[in-house]
Specification:
Blueprint: H1 2-33, H2 38-73, H3 77-88
Length: 103
């Protein structure tokens, strides 16, 4: 009888720490391998870097287009000639049109 009580008391005392350890283990594992855990943070930061690079490219493209629009609204003759030559790829009888990269 005495052994039965000591075994029962021993397991009764260990129930609360065991439950606490299980809860801490569950949340600890989720903090590392969960959807918003440490490992997911690295992937998110890599995606953020890619998106920031894409944003910089889009902003640079937008600034280039805004500059060209500003030139068009001022009726810049050089821009008009450039657009005509790129669209028509045509020139005078003894001229050769060489396409160039856009700026």
């Amino acid at each position: 009888m005495r052994i039965k009580r000591s075994v029962t008391r021993f397991f009764t005392v260990l129930i609360l720490p065991a439950i606490s350890l299980a809860v801490v283990g569950y949340f600890g594992a989720y903090a590392i391998w969960g959807n918003r855990g440490i490992l997911a943070l690295e992937d998110t930061q890599a995606q953020l870097g890619i998106r920031q690079q894409q944003l910089a490219e889009v902003q640079a493209n937008r600034e280039r287009l805004e500059h060209r629009i500003a030139l068009m609204s001022k009726h810049d003759p050089d821009l008009v000639e450039e657009l005509a030559r790129t669209q028509l790829m045509d020139g005078a009888p003894n001229q050769v049109a060489v396409p160039r990269s856009r700026h």
